[in-house]
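Repro case for the chain-ordering regression, as requested:
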Amino acid sequence: VPASAWFAQVQAIAGSLPVVATRRWTVGGQEIELVAASAASAAVALDGIASSAPGSGARPATARWVAFDGSTATLPPPPFGVDDVLPRDGVRGFASGRFRLAWAIERHVLWGLDTQRGDGFLWMRDAQRCAPWDRSAPWRPHLAWWLDGHGAGLIHAAAVAPPDRPDAGALLIGPGGSGKSTLALACAAAGWTVTSDDYVAVHRHGARWQATAPFRLAKATTGSIDLLGLPASWLIEGRDHLGKSLIDLPDALGAQGAAATEPAAIIAPRIVTDPPTPARPLHPAAVTAALGPSTVLQTPGDAAATLRTVAELARSLPAWTLEVDGDVARTGPAALRAQIDRVGVAR
Amino acid sequence: MVAASRPDVIDEVIDGEAVIVHLGSGRYFACNEAATALWVWIEAGRTRSELAAVLDAAPATWAGPARAVVDAWTAEGLLVEVPAGAEPRRGPSPTTGGVPEVRTFTDLEDLLLLDPIHDVEVGADGFPVARPPT
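-- result from build under test --
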């Protein structure tokens, strides 16, 4: 069956299902209408997304994505076979072009998007079989595919901004364990706006960039909870697949949780035990190397397009290293604020 | 003819320095300006004789490191043999500038090891599924 005919069949099935819950998602400069056809699929596909920003919904949605599960509908045999299964849930022949598919062979979750029409679906054979990350970061393939095609991107970075300056934020980048999430949570404890601690959508907003939150949850290790003295009331029930505690950013931070910020700088933080050395500027290529591969290897979008977006971001924002001593809660936000202010002077 | 292994390899040149990612291995590479000039010259396809001619004609201080870089790119699967193109390509010589240097990063390989290609079979409804362990 040609891909177009198969997608038409699935969209007809999705369109015939009852609407149990809907949500408007304003992310990456896009307005997306999310629909769930069962309570079980709503729990996976809707609960984990960040609330839409105030004023969202004023523009018509350009994409409509429907979530349903095996209890509501079965699908026709897929337009791909066993030899087409690729790493990272990829499907050969559907990683680029108009029709995109991703298939999780262990969990039996299928993501599909017609990138021309904006029609998408998320089908899970059994919602109970979904992984914690399917719930905490739903629609991640869709988001990567859709943003790639609209001059935006889903990138592997945290985004924060000082309490009084949402327009002077920072994207925090770096490998796992470098201190990116710990510094973001230290900023949260200090009253900053935290858009996200892990994945953030970025898009051009006039001459500047805007960072928006795709998802509600942040993650914290036991070590960073102890180090930062985070309130127990921030932690929600359950842990992620790596045993990290979960924080619902809007619940914990109110209006400053998962809210949009405008990054004015890219910062590669590192928590050190020796006295911190002065911040050093980073070449855009170093930023691209630090941010690009970890983004493209963890998202199923068009890798070349994603790397281009990262490079564009790296070219347009100043970037620095930032060493922070072990007393991150006390010194981290102050050091970051000082560096952001220096960037403001330099701009 | 050798060329970049598409679509497994993606690259971006930023302010004269290339970042190359091998999506299959998870390794990525940061090139200085001289290595970037060499990559840009070769990635869309060069014949072995073109490559040999450039290396033979260049000063040894450039040719030695350049040869090592090309060998490393080949060993890493960034460059592969492709069918010869119909038209000879033009472009500035890659020998201008300093000594080619490439930094290799392996810290993301684990991401791929966490997600190996499974033993797959066709399920009852036609979808590929992981074969149960025996």
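Ordering looks correct now. Chain B has a mean pLDDT of 88.
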